[in-house]
């Protein structure tokens, strides 16, 4: 990557990030994200009743929480450019389209990372109450971050398809839901009735649940990491194809 | 600087640009005229590399837009049709962003910014968010973005759309000034702009070139070009018509409305000749007519425009 490309990516990342924080969207998102993580961890997840010093109750809900919140962040990435016509400005600049795609992706990923970082009181709480395995917590955070990245790349891809943010949002939720359900136990149990175990395993291999599990248990498996990175990479690549073929 | 060869664009079964070829040289301001839906914006989008052509090719400064998009795009400053800017940014932030994407940094960026802010009269709104600006300011902000790297080729899609008469005047002057040293292509459907800013104009209709020439040449294609219009006090219209029609240079006469006296328009037998005006003046002198007005018509662009293009209200 040349310096020129890097400068363009950074310029776009900076612009998008500033744009998040100059609108109420960022603050509304952060507040809701923190409220919901708190609610799921302490109320639905029975954090206290578990009687164990771990953040299992916290991380277990992330795939579901992100299912709605990440597409809400990603849906505007390209739809908004199309709707307002600024896509014409952006794509007639002397930059490669992928620089814009990566720049936009990085800014929203950074934004989600900020949201994730702001959940630090949970870590402090669990450390104050007991003696958790902090390595496991770090792995959990890492997994959660890559999970968010994969969802985000998918939401960016659906956003490139349409100028309508609602359509982009719904498509992204459906795709991400598929990635959850493919490995969600109640669904795989249902499948055992008519599919062979090999088929079920193949389907489950596409699921974020299967790959997120390892991180929650404190295992950073290169295969899990590779899975999230390939989903992200594939979605970004598809975004580039969509942008190239659907301009106006 | 801009060379367009057999350019076509089809959307589905709809041909929007149909085998278009023309060039714009340095030092030239080319006006692209045409009714709505004639393919002006689509042509410009292909020149700036936003849309890929269905057939044919475009080169800018010797770089093919499809083959070497970055080299071509570096040379171009582009004002898109809707003058879309990021509404949540300030004028200053937006121009900084455009400069960054163009690879202008440090002191050069500061200078570039100062130059375009001055050119486009943006000092007053520099730190205002673009959403809060009036249409004229928003338009000029987008124009400033197109000028920030002092481009050799300027492509402007309806640059005066939505501006008030003073701003239109300023933008036209700016275009003419820039056109002295750069290649400028701009589209409009305001015909007076052709006179005000262009050194050459092309009229396109349904994606094809229907006329190409200097504003004078285009106007000469008008029906009334070369005709002499005069208004005379105290002479009956019928007598005036008879006398004028009797001139050997005159083809026919037609009464026209005049603010005072009787008005008559004489059409020449030979459009390229200038003898008709002299003949009419000599006749008036002989007859001791009290002439209130005498004018040789240059022709009307709007008439040429209407003759050459079909309105989009006509069914295909």
Describe what this molecule looks like in 3D.
The complex is a heterodimer of chains A (248) and B (316). Chain A is mainly α. Chain A has helices at residues 3-21, 24-44, 47-50, 56-59, 62-74, 76-84, 86-91, 97-117, 120-129, 134-161, 165-181, 185-191, 197-205, 208-216, 222-245. In chain A, helix 10 (134-161) packs parallel to helix 15 and helix 14 packs across helix 15. The relative contact order of chain A is 0.13. Chain B has 316 residues and is of the alpha/beta class. Chain B has helices at 40-47, 69-75, 91-101, 106-119, 135-147, 165-179, 192-197, 215-220, 237-245, 275-286, 301-308; strands at residues 2-11, 14-24, 28-33, 55-60, 63-64, 76-79, 153-157, 183-188, 200-205, 208-213, 228-233, 250-256, 262-268, 290-296. In chain B, a hairpin with a 5-residue loop joins strand 12 and strand 13 (262-268). Chain B is elongated and about 75 Å long. The chains are: A mainly alpha (248), B alpha/beta (316). At the A-B interface, helix 1 and helix 7 of A face helix 2 and helix 3 of B.
Topology of helices and strands:
The complex is a heterodimer of chains A (about 250) and B (about 325).
Chain A lengths: L2 H19 L2 H21 L2 H4 L5 H4 L2 H13 L1 H9 L1 H6 L5 H21 L2 H10 L4 H28 L3 H17 L3 H7 L5 H9 L2 H9 L5 H24 L3
Helix pairs in contact in A: 1-8, 2-5, 5-10, 5-11, 6-10, 8-10, 8-15, 10-11, 10-14, 10-15, 14-15
Chain B lengths: L1 E10 L2 E11 L3 E6 L6 H8 L7 E6 L2 E2 L4 H7 E4 L11 H11 L4 H14 L15 H13 L5 E5 L7 H15 L3 E6 L3 H6 L2 E6 L2 E6 L1 H6 L7 E6 L3 H9 L4 E7 L5 E7 L6 H12 L3 E7 L4 H8 L8
Parallel strand pairs in B: 3-8, 3-9, 6-7, 7-8
Antiparallel strand pairs in B: 1-2, 1-4, 4-5, 9-10, 11-13, 11-14, 12-13
